[in-house]
Amino acid sequence: MSLIKLSPTIAVTDKVNRLKSQGKEICVLAAGEPDFDTPGHIKKAAIQAINEGKTKYTAVDGTRELKGAIIDKLKRDNDLEYMPSQICVSAGAKQVLFNLLMATINPEDEAVIPAPCWVSYVDMVSFFGGLPVIAECKDNFKLTSELLRSKITEKTKWLILNSPNNPAGVVYTYDELKKIAQILLEYPHVNIITDDIYEHIVYDGKFFTIAQVEPRLYDRVFVVNGVSKAYAMAGWRIGYVAGRSDVVKAISILQSQSTSNPNSIAQAAAVEALN
Length: 275
Hints:
Blueprint: H1 8-21, H2 40-51, H3 64-78, E1 87-90, H4 93-104, E2 110-115, H5 119-127, E3 131-136, H6 145-151, E4 156-162, H7 174-185, E5 191-195, H8 210-213, E6 221-226, E7 239-242, H9 245-256, H10 264-274
Parallel strand pairs: 2-3, 2-4, 4-5, 5-6
Antiparallel strand pairs: 1-7, 6-7
Helix pairs in contact: 2-10, 3-10, 4-9
């Protein structure tokens, strides 16, 4: 238990709530949470699901309808094709990442993490006995191909990419991802987690994900996304992973022994959001 510590994001949020209870006005920049409400049509879908009695257990890895909506979204927005067996839905992208690392990290496996980064990546890797390898990105806060090459060893299991980046906000271009992909093709033992949760918060240019840029990496890339940011559904807790079916099956097995299925009503709402 000594390896477990409170998420810094949660710690800051708790402090903010204490200060607010004392009557202080606070501008909160801690958690990545939209400051507007969930759209009405998504709320209506949730209410309809309640009224239709969709309040039972679902499949551990998500409903058929939600998996279908995720598959359609990935094809429509990212030009990536997946089967239902390659999708697992969890209680938020955070649980997806936790499950994915739990299922794959062995003691002393290394994970390259470009910094600045979301605080939980490092703690999650460490918690499962892995070794976080921090790549300090000094070139516009972005990982370069040269820096990536310098951090890869025979023990490297994961590269964790996050674009748009939390907290820096930088977005990797097609050409930048292509250069990173060329390095990764030289190291077939390295898998890639691409945390795309901020995909739709791009104000100039276009969003690309690395498997879209380099199809030869398809079997080594695990796309992590959800509905929290794009659809102002942070509290609904729906995230998903798309990737190789054997690993996704392992994630589903782990989830069957912990939380089981994500919230059934939130899943129905997520279908409406993604369609």
